[in-house]
Amino acid sequence: MDQLFTIDCGEILLREFSIEDVGAIYELTSQPEVYEFLPDWRSTKEQRASWVTNYEIPSNQSFLSAVPNIDDQNYLKLGIILKKSGKFIGFCNTGLKEELPEQNREIAYAISKHYRKRGYASEAVKGLVHYLFTYTNVQLLNTVVLPRNLGSLKVIHKCGFCFKGTIQIDSEQHEHYTITKEDWLRGY
User: Is 44 exposed, middle or buried (0-12, 13-18, 19+ CB in 10 A)?
Assistant: First the structure.
């Protein structure tokens, strides 16, 4: 197997998806604590295998080959891996969020219910933000969060995202947050 792209974030690594991750991604996205907030990620194991093989791995390769000139077609989906054990415990992704206004590159993430409240999501988001603002042409990042998702709201605030307003997506009110490269460089 070729060396997979990774970002070292301290206790965790962000690593591009591989075929071997299908079971772990399926298990994670089958947790009600995850699909409540990310319903589009719910699938059968067969669908997940197809998506990882035919969409997510090629998309990651396309993204990485485009660096530093990322455009709206480039998506990067990374597993959150515990460094000590190699266990896949979540994901942290970036891609286009069509429901947002222009400059609509989003960061989205999920952590297994078994690994929450340990700072891993914040580590992952900070690691991906650092990578995007350091190695690509990305100047603005967005995230949207349902107001009842208190854990995600804590992560967003810890990572320096600023509240921009509310937005209706799929008949639900979401809070919209952004961080600019300029603010990130200043330490928010």
Answer: exposed
Does residue 50 lie in a domain region? yes
Measured in whole angstroms, how far is the alpha carbon of residue 145 from the centre of its chain? 13
Q: pLDDT per residue over 15-56, tens digit each? A: 999 999 999 999 999 888 888 888 788 889 999 999 999 999
Amino acid at 159: C
Tokens of 28: 């994670």
pLDDT above 60 for 1: no
**Nearest Cα residue to 123 out of 25, 115, 71:** 115
Structural domain range at position 154? 6-185
- Residue 1: inside a domain, yes or no? no
Total domain count, the chain: 1
Looking up residue 121, the CATH number of its domain turns out to be 3.40.630.30
DSSP characters for 47-88? HHHHHIIIIIHHHHHHHHHHTT---TT--EEEEEEETTT--E
